Amino acid sequence: MLTVTNLSVSYGAINAVDGVSFAVPAGAIVTLIGGNGAGKTTTLRALSGLLRARGGSVTFDSADITRLPPHEIVACGLGHVPEGRMIFANLTVDENLAMGAYLQRDRQRIAESRDYVFGIFPRLAERLRQSAGTLSGGEQQMLAIGRALMGRPKFLMLDEPSLGLAPRLVGTIFDQIQEINRSHGLTILLVEQNARLALEVSSHAHVLETGRIVISGPSTELRTDPRLKTAYLG
Amino acid sequence: MTEFLQQLVNGLSLGAIYALIALGYTMVYGVLRFINFAHSEVFMVGAMIAWKLGQYLPNGTLWGGLVVLAAAMAGCAVLGVTIERLVYRPLRGTATLNVLITAIGVSLLLQSVFQHPRVFGATPQLFPAVFPSKNFTFGGLAISSNQLVVITVAALLIVVLQLVIFRTRMGRAMRAVALNPSAAQLVGVNLNAVISFTFALGSALAGAGGVLYALNYPSVEPLMGVMPGLKAFVAAVLGGIGSIPGAALGGLILGTIETLVGGSATLSTYKDAIAFAVLIFILLCRPTGLLGRAATEKV
Ligand SMILES: Nc1ncnc2c1ncn2[C@@H]1O[C@H](COP(=O)(O)OP(=O)(O)OP(=O)(O)O)[C@@H](O)[C@H]1O
Ligand SMILES: [Mg+2]
Question: Whose CA is nearest to atom 17 of ligand 1?
Answer without folding.
Answer: A41
